[in-house]
Design a protein that fits this description.
The protein is α+β, with helices and mostly antiparallel strands. It is built from 20 helices and 20 strands. The chain has a five-stranded antiparallel β-sheet, sandwiched between helices. Strands 7-6-10-9-8 form a five-stranded antiparallel β-sheet, sandwiched between helices. The protein is elongated and about 110 Å long.
Length: 571
């Protein structure tokens, strides 16, 4: 290896090698990886531009200093660094590891370290060390682990039978409800073709293959099917197949089964005899009614009475349309009465009711028309079932995908955007666009009780932006409460002196708030407006708080250590 000594080295009497030739000099100085070259005593004799930029030093500050003193000054890091040196010099082999090193300002950064010894022709020993910043990778790994926890909880706890299949139809995951429904242990399911698990009948296998073909062609599947458990028992199931997108190149099939065998049995029993019909339907969980063409009830089972909270005497003779708004009643009349014909005697409809608890209950009705010999509709038999759990599972999965996409986008912004003003504004826009919050505000403090900057996305209809009406105001008691209290605060009622910031400015909705805090620094707070009918899950509150912590960490890493360091609409 050719030797080349810089003037600086000669002045300090350092006789270390410098990469010879302009080509290798340029390669060393312009490498995207941070590199230093040290002598046998670990004194730095060369440091490239990337190293200086990564750790915040000028070249003059590090030349001649012990490399471990520069990037591993704490006792724990120093012990580790010395151990690495001893291992390398003892074995004369390279050492590669992931660890933490410190910038000049004390900021810790995760790095991948490669330290390699080498010897010149004259026997002089040196080593070079390459540091690769792996902050983005570590952040991505953390986000992935968090997403996986939420998905696993939802997947394992749902009472619906769920399996996940790859494009070749092989089962990659099956939840406890699926294993129980089909009677298999997990070891007999994973890796096998789904058709071999859900049925042994050749006709049903062909049907399942055709459904899969339609799904992979882009069709969403929601239908009733017959399948078999391990013992060969026929299962009447409601099938939902939706795409599960893992990344831009990988899509899996998310299959949900709901056992509707009891509903089918009830319908078959109704055809056999009126006597048996009455004996069977009274024991069903489904709601079974009969009504005439005016919507007047002529028969109700016990489940329907419990559902309505009324006795049979109160229900018989009343109209089913009395409980609905005129618009809904008109739609039901059109669907149930107009659309039922001898050619299409069955019509499925779905309605919802707001329960006293505030929860919305969804009921799916399967309406069958009964016609006289002339084809005139004379009666309607309806079987209803509570599909709230299925709806909630679908909405939770959809909402979880939306939340996780928003988290990924925010992490992408944090990793790529170095302008704090642009970062905060982009985060507001991302939360509105991806998670559908009507309004998002991020308030940055100037000093303890005053706003310095407000960033927001969306506006109150027909009014001026919140930021224009809140700038330069002293924080009210509600805002101070958020800043003083850890965790997420949700307020659902509009009351004076609310504990939710900006709530009185936005009377048609409630809000969710938390403070922006990292390593003891409180930078401000973040608030999102929520529609009154919106139900915030515990998972979403956890993600919201962790997102706020990530935003605060980003501000901290950008050097915004004191309040009032970001310019927004109030500046």
């Amino acid at each position: 290896m050719a030797r080349l000594f810089s003037k600086k080295h000669e002045k300090k009497d350092f006789t270390g090698p410098v990469l010879g030739g302009s080509f290798f000099e340029n390669l060393f100085d312009h490498s995207p990886e941070a590199i230093i070259i040290c002598d046998r005593e670990e004194r730095i004799i060369r440091a490239n531009r990337t190293f200086c930029k990564l750790f915040g030093y000028s070249e003059e500050e590090v030349i001649g200093k012990n490399g471990n003193d520069v990037v591993a000054p704490t006792p724990d890091l120093m012990r580790e660094a010395v151990a690495v040196d001893e291992l390398m010099w003892t074995t004369m082999e390279k050492v590669c590891m992931e660890t933490i090193r410190l910038k000049k300002d004390g900021t810790a950064i995760p790095v991948e370290l490669l330290q390699v010894p080498f010897e010149l022709e004259d026997g002089t020993l040196y080593d070079y060390t390459i540091y690769r910043d792996i902050t983005e990778r570590k952040n991505a790994e953390y986000a992935f682990r968090r997403e996986k926890v939420f998905f696993e909880k939802l997947f394992e706890a749902t009472p619906l039978a769920i399996m996940i299949c790859d494009p070749k139809g092989r089962i990659t995951r099956a939840n406890p409800a699926f294993l129980k429904l089909f009677g298999y242990p997990e070891g007999e399911v994973i890796g096998r073709a789904c058709y071999d698990i859900v049925t042994q009948d050749a006709r049903l296998i062909a049907e399942a293959r055709e459904i899969d073909k339609r799904f992979w062609s882009g069709e969403n599947i929601h239908m009733q099917v017959k399948r078999q458990n391990k013992d060969g028992k026929i299962l009447h199931l409601e099938l939902v197949q939706v795409p599960l997108i893992l990344d831009q190149d990988t899509m899996m099939c998310y299959v949900i089964y709901r056992d509707i065998s009891q509903q089918i049995k009830a319908e078959e029993a109704l055809k056999e005899s009126e006597r048996r019909y009455h004996a069977v339907v009274q024991d069903q969980d489904e709601f079974i009614v009969r009504l005439n063409t005016d919507g007047v009830l002529t028969f109700v089972n016990d489940a329907y009475c419990r559902y309505k909270g009324m006795s049979k005497e109160e229900l018989l003779g009343s109209s089913i349309f009395d409980d609905y708004t005129p618009e809904t009643a008109e739609r039901l009349k059109r669907e149930i009465l107009t659309f039922l014909t001898p050619e299409t005697p069955v019509k499925t409809s779905e309605v919802y009711n707001d329960l006293p608890s505030g929860k919305r209950q969804f009921v799916q009705w399967r309406n069958r028309g009964i016609f006289d010999q002339n084809g005139k509709l004379i009666e309607i038999q309806s079987v209803g079932r509570d599909v709230t759990d299925l709806k909630e599972a679908q909405e939770q999965l959809k909402r979880l995908n939306v939340v996780l996409k928003s988290v990924r986008d925010i992490h992408r912004l944090i990793n790529s955007e170095k302008d704090p003003t642009q970062l905060l504004q982009s985060i507001c826009v991302s939360l509105v666009v991806n998670q559908g919050y009507p309004n998002v505000w991020i308030a940055i403090l100037e000093f303890k009780n005053c706003l310095a900057s407000i960033f927001e996305a969306a506006m109150i209809d027909g009014d001026t932006p919140i930021s224009e009406r809140m700038c330069r105001k002293e924080l009210n008691r509600a805002c101070r409460k958020v800043l003083e209290s850890p965790g997420v605060i949700i307020e659902k009622e509009v009351v004076p002196c609310s504990y939710i910031p900006l709530l009185n400015e936005y009377p048609d909705k409630y809000s969710m708030s938390t403070r922006l805090e990292y390593q003891g620094h409180v930078f401000g707070l973040i608030t999102v407006a929520l529609p009154k009918e919106y139900m915030v899950t515990e998972e979403e509150k956890i993600i919201f708080q962790e997102t706020a912590q990530d935003i605060a960490m980003a501000l901290y890493n950008l050097g915004i250590h004191s309040q009032g360091g970001v310019k927004g609409k109030c500046d």
